[in-house]
Amino acid sequence: MPENSVAQFYDDLADDYHLIYADWDAGIRRQGEALHALIGQDRTAVLDCSCGIGTQAIGLALRGHRVIGTDLSPRAAARAAREAAQRDVTLRTAAADMRRLPFPDARFDAVVCADNSLPHLLTEQDVHAALAEMRRVLRPGGLLMVSTRAYDDLLRSRPASAPPQVHRYAGDGERTVTFQLWHWHEDGEHYDLEHFQLLPAAGEWRVRVRRTVSWALGRDRLAGLVAEAGFVAPRWRMPQETGFFQPLLTAHAGK
């Protein structure tokens, strides 16, 4: 799938992304705390190279880190900056492809690529290009944090859908419903994703459907690609250990 279709998916989702959370502000704080604990230092220079509307980037900025956010979606990156300003934290954002990061070498202490963003790259060549860029902009010994779905489990069962999420949005008390349908390709690894969002509208439901493609990268395979890109000591950390909502792969930039 062309990269502009991924940008379009998240451009279309940008205004409503917070509705996949029961409480987005609580999610910002919770995810920021979990990532801050892994960084283990205060006031580090952090790049969130798939910042979306700012869930992880704002959470880390609230913890005092100096965060820059980039995203393939211009609308998502712009919203992230607005949301940060509304919470009185500084977050510089820009639209950028993680395979071509617009920063000098060794600029950051940590790089975050969370929320299943890396699997939108559909070939080993593209994943390697992105990881090589993350390695390039990290200082020697800097920390990489990548989160994905629990793909080892999903590859065993190849489900046709994700469970629906029903939330009552705190802004107006209305319920929203979000779910996904997955159509697996013949290779058993890639899948077409249909993202459904049901929003109340004048006593009826307004349905938004967005489509993209992802690659179900298993843990061993992704850890191997991370090592090939120049990182050392890759380690998967599960949600019960970190408090983060997805499995997290951490590694350090080789010296």
Automatic annotation (TrEMBL):
GO terms for biological process: methylation. Residues 46-142 form the Methyltransferase domain. This is Class I SAM-dependent methyltransferase. Keywords: Methyltransferase, Transferase. PANTHER family: METHYLTRANSFERASE. Its EC number is 2.1.1.-. CDD domains: AdoMet_MTases. It comes from Streptomyces carpinensis. The lineage of its organism: Bacteria, Bacillati, Actinomycetota, Actinomycetes, Kitasatosporales. It is an enzyme of class 2 (transferase). The keyword Transferase applies.
